[in-house]
């Protein structure tokens, strides 16, 4: 892979501020990879995807043994511990 700072290829700056070759960025999105390879934060605005997931989740009931389960979320705005039940 070419060095990002001397490359003549088009670049993309992610939401977290890291540089990716535009071709690499496009391939990542096509493969469903939305994490920055450097810091693991979201490389694009995921609000539409999360809203779609919320709508799908509202159609089923969380099993009792998972209702207190917590998930660690690492995104552009920080690291949070949230409930999978819609916190």
UniProtKB/TrEMBL annotation:
Stated name of the protein: RING finger and CHY zinc finger domain-containing protein 1
Keywords: Metal-binding, Zinc, Zinc-finger
Keyword Translocase (UniProt): no
GO cellular component: nucleus
Classification via InterPro entries: Znf_C3HC4_RING-type, Znf_RING/FYVE/PHD
GO molecular function: ubiquitin protein ligase activity; zinc ion binding
One GO process term, biological-process aspect: protein ubiquitination
Pfam families the record matches: zf-C3HC4 (PF00097)
Residue intervals of the Zinc finger C3HC4 RING-type domain: 12-39
Superkingdom field: Eukaryota
């Amino acid at each position: 892979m070419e060095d990002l700072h001397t490359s003549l290829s088009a670049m993309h700056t992610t939401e977290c501020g890291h540089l990716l070759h535009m071709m690499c960025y496009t391939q990542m999105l096509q493969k469903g990879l939305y994490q920055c390879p450097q810091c693991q934060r979201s490389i694009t605005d995921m609000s539409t995807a999360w809203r779609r997931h919320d709508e799908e989740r509202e159609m089923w009931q969380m099993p009792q043994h998972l209702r207190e389960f917590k998930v660690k979320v690492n995104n552009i705005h920080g690291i949070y511990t949230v409930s999978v039940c819609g916190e």
